[in-house]
Specification:
The protein has about 120 residues and is mainly α. It has one domain (about 5-115). The protein has six helices and no strands. It has helices at about 5-15, 20-30, 35-40, 50-65, 70-100, 105-115. The two termini are about 35 Å apart.
Length: about 120
């Protein structure tokens, strides 16, 4: 499971913020202690919800760390990882809604094309 979550886990382990995958799963993903182990066993990706919780925590702590002189670089790294989590979430969600209704983007483009010269709101 090569994901942004594994990058986050490795960083948190390096700085001593977590000591095990179980602790990371519980404290940073909001899931059970066996969550990462189960994902690895089943060969599946983390849920969008788990990634979102991690992104939120990274942003929260990253912002606070950036306000210190001693941990500014670490704070920036947390923010970067949060952004990677958000990219993962967006890509996963986009793939889901595109699979559910592949005509939606075409309809949106047609609507926006028909609204040329006006401010158009995308309503799907």
């Amino acid at each position: 499971m090569k994901t942004v979550l594994m990058e986050v886990y490795k960083l948190l382990q390096e700085i001593g913020a977590v000591h095990s995958e179980s602790e990371f799963s519980r404290d940073w993903l909001g899931r059970s202690e066996c969550y990462l182990r189960t994902l690895r066993f089943k060969g599946t990706d983390a849920s969008v919800g788990a990634v979102a919780i991690c992104a939120s925590k990274l942003q929260h702590y990253g912002t606070r760390l950036q306000q210190t002189q001693r941990h500014t670089a670490l704070g920036q790294r947390f923010i970067q990882l949060s952004e990677q989590c958000h990219k993962h979430i967006n890509a996963h969600c986009e793939a889901d809604w595109l699979c559910e209704n592949p005509a939606t983007p075409k309809k949106a483009v047609e609507y926006l094309s028909n609204q040329a010269g006006t401010t158009a709101a995308l309503v799907v």
